[in-house]
């Protein structure tokens, strides 16, 4: 490994997960099983991917850990908050994602992961009904209680560092409002005045994490850290943030397939995407106000890849529709179905159908591992603010919309950004352009 300015990954890393549902428990159980040598972290870039560093005679293909100092899986400690009091073992069994043979060997460790009381407001997730909930006088009180949770967890578990990741449900949509979300002072004032309309519980988690020196990752499409006030807080605390929404199934396909149409100069008339999903996420998204948050996130992918202004003949009039249907029999085994109406030479129509029978939490779990390890790395490298190099893992990557900036959604461009960031942190030259 080259000499870099990145601080070494010494001591324990506390990964504190908001939500102890299917995604969180699949992630935690998987890491514990891999640690015991009883399973493989398939789908994890940090554990499997190799990238080229150097050129010519200096050229090498290395795993991430051989380029930058990543936290070892044996040094991870898990904590979680949830509205339901069941420990991680009970929650894993209840989620019905993993088989007993993949849970029982780490039962003892899972049983010790007991969710702390969640900072929760039923108005933001009407379909959830748990009673393991904090009693908070105001949103500011909510922040203080979460800060205490983080302090206590860090001390009790002897952690050198923390990362907080949101793997809880999608909240109802909170549109950006300059009066409350533009400046940090206004955000804090709204929290102290207990403005429950403009301050979502997730914002309290993010505020608490950043002020406690923990990077924050938004794994749902919530607007939580995607507001200038939070960018200001990240700058002030010198902490990295990223979001939003884990890119697992359908949008992964979209961000990988749309570039095929672009490079081949084929036209697109319409793209219809529908999902059937039966887990707790599906239940929450069955509420129209919660679905709207997800819809905004899912719809943002296409227009930044297939740009109307670049190719009006090909992409000037795309009809893009996204649907999610709650269907309990499928539980976590989501079906993402896409219909593309494309056109070619002389405008003749063709169709492409993609049917992705995926397992939502199996696709999400490695993303949680990669995001937490890479955000911890970013913090040790002195990076703060929005970590654009992690767009590869996110459905609706954050960007400065106040300055008209566009997100990069093309999967292959996102991969270049990821590789270059790792090269630079590892003391190598970034050597691929996105143009």
Your description of this structure?
This protein is of the alpha/beta class and 435 residues long. The chain is built from 15 helices and 13 strands. It has helices at residues 22-35, 45-48, 88-95, 107-111, 139-156, 178-181, 184-192, 201-211, 228-237, 250-264, 280-285, 288-305, 312-315, 360-380, 411-425; strands spanning 12-18, 50-53, 60-63, 76-82, 116-117, 159-166, 216-218, 240-243, 267-277, 319-326, 333-343, 349-359, 385-386. The strands form three sheets. The chain has a seven-stranded parallel beta sheet, sandwiched between helices. A four-stranded mixed beta sheet has the order 10-9-11-12. β11 and β12 (349-359) form a beta hairpin. α1 (22-35) crosses α14 (360-380).
> Any idea what the shape is?
globular
Give me the count of strands.
Answer: 13
Mean pLDDT rating: 95
Give me the Rg, rounded.
21 Å
How does the major sheet shape up?
Answer: 7 strands, parallel
Strand arrangement in the largest pleated sheet: 5-4-1-6-7-8-13
| Continuous helix count | 15
Structural class, from helix and strand content?
A: alpha/beta
Instruction: Report the end-to-end length measured between terminal Cα atoms.
Output: 30 Å
Portion of residues within helices: 25-40%
Helix-strand string: EHHEEEHHEHEHHHEHEHEHHHEEEHEH
Instruction: Tell me the fraction of residues in β-strands, as a range.
Output: 15-25%
Spans where pLDDT lies below 50 across 5 or more residues: none
């Amino acid at each position: 490994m080259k000499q870099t300015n990145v601080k070494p990954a010494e001591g324990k890393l506390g990964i504190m997960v908001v939500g102890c549902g299917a995604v969180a428990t699949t992630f935690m159980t998987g890491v514990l099983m891999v640690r015991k040598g009883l399973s493989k972290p398939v789908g994890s870039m940090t554990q499997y991917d190799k990238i080229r560093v150097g050129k010519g005679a200096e050229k090498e293909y290395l795993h991430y850990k051989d380029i930058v100092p990543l936290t070892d899986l044996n040094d991870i400690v898990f904590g979680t908050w949830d509205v339901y009091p069941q420990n991680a073992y009970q929650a894993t069994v209840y989620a019905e994602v993993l088989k007993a043979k993949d849970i029982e060997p780490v039962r003892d460790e899972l049983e010790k992961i007991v969710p702390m009381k969640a900072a929760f407001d039923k108005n933001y997730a009407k379909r959830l009904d748990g009673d393991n909930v904090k009693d908070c006088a105001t949103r500011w009180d909510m922040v203080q209680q979460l800060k205490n949770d983080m302090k206590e967890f860090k001390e009790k578990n002897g952690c050198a560092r923390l990362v907080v990741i949101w793997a809880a449900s999608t909240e109802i949509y909170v549109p950006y409002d300059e009066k409350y979300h533009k400046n940090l002072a206004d955000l804090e004032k709204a929290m102290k005045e207990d403005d429950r309309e403009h301050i979502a519980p997730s914002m309290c988690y993010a505020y608490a994490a950043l002020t406690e020196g923990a990077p924050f990752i938004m794994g749902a499409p919530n607007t939580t850290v995607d507001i200038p006030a939070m960018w200001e807080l990240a700058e002030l605390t010198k902490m990295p943030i990223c979001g939003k929404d884990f890119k697992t199934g359908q949008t992964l396909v979209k961000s990988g397939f749309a570039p095929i149409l672009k490079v081949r100069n084929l036209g697109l008339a319409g793209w219809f995407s529908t999902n059937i999903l039966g887990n707790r996420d599906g239940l929450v998204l069955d509420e129209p106000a919660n679905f709207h948050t997800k819809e905004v996130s899912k719809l943002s992918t296409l227009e930044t890849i297939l740009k109307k202004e670049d190719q009006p003949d090909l992409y000037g009039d795309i009809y893009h529709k996204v649907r999610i249907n709650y269907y309990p029999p499928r539980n976590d085994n989501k079906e993402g179905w896409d219909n593309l109406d494309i056109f070619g030479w002389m405008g003749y129509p063709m169709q492409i159908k993609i049917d992705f029978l995926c397992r939502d939490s199996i696709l999400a779990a490695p993303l949680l591992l990669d995001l937490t390890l890479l955000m911890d790395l970013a913090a040790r490298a002195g990076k703060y603010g929005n970590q654009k190099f992690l767009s590869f893992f996110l459905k609706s990557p954050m960007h400065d919309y106040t300055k008209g900036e566009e997100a990069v959604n093309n999967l292959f461009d996102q991969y270049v950004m990821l590789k270059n960031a790792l090269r630079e942190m590892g003391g190598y030259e970034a050597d691929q352009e996105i143009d």
